[in-house]
Amino acid sequence: MKKGYLSVNTGDGKGKTTAAVGQALRALGAGYSVYVGQFLKSDRSGEIRVLREISSKVATETYGIERKVGSPVTERDREAAKEGLTRLKKAIDDGYDLVVADEILVAMSSGLLEESELLDLMESKPESVELVMTGRGATQAIIDRADVVTEMVEIKHHYRLGVQAREGIEK
What we know:
The chain is an alpha/beta fold. Helix 2 (about 45-55) links the parallel strand 2 (about 35-40) and strand 3. The chain has helices spanning about 15-30, 45-55, 75-95, 105-110, 115-125, 140-145, and strands at about 5-10, 35-40, 60-65, 100, 130-135, 150. About 35% of the residues are buried. It has a six-stranded parallel beta sheet, with helices on both faces. It is globular, with a radius of gyration of 15 Å.
């Protein structure tokens, strides 16, 4: 890849991770190498399981501790997120063509990472690497620095009716 861009998938609507995984599939289909790092998720997610099965050109990792929304942030949570950020930087340095930092924006907005750390990550990305960052809560500084920003807007969602994330559909 000659020129990689910085993309942000944010907003309160559904589909941020799904869109990033779609980009990963498209990149794999074109012969690119892909790295997907997920903050605040377990390796039980359907997208991670299938990515691991379909290609030797994709590496996946999950960082930190799966947390319930609104639960108090602990020092252990912060340490796990910092370790994840270190591993994500290594993946970028290792020369993957596409790097997905899934839910990194939620890690920031919940206090596990600092905005400055994400901006540093964006600035240090080599020209040839495509970086996709996902999650609710993109700050104006991150939006300003990105080349592509997509906001997912919730119009209607079954969560409002008490339906939890379903295996194979939302997780």
